[in-house]
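User: quick one, fold this
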Amino acid sequence: MHDEDLPLRERLNRETGRLAWPEIQRHFARGAVVRVAAELDLVEVAACFAADDRERVMPWFASGQVARASVEDAEGWNRRQAVFWGVVVAPWLLVQEIEPGTET
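Assistant:
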């Protein structure tokens, strides 16, 4: 079975990877990084982005659980040399910071 034959969530899950802040910087510089709160399922959010499911995505934006990364986010990530789970849903890179001690 080819990846393109897999259901969307499974394909996105396979494409999710661990990224360090230096790997994300260039995407941040072009305004393409979207941060996802820890209480949300990164793959579920990515699937909603991919399906253009505004009904699900807009409340997350309204609550601040999903947002385009800000300069303040980037400064904090740089200071901490943060590590993330990330997945690309073009043109976006969705990231969720990994809390220290939860890198399983």
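User: anything notable?
Assistant: The mean pLDDT is 91.
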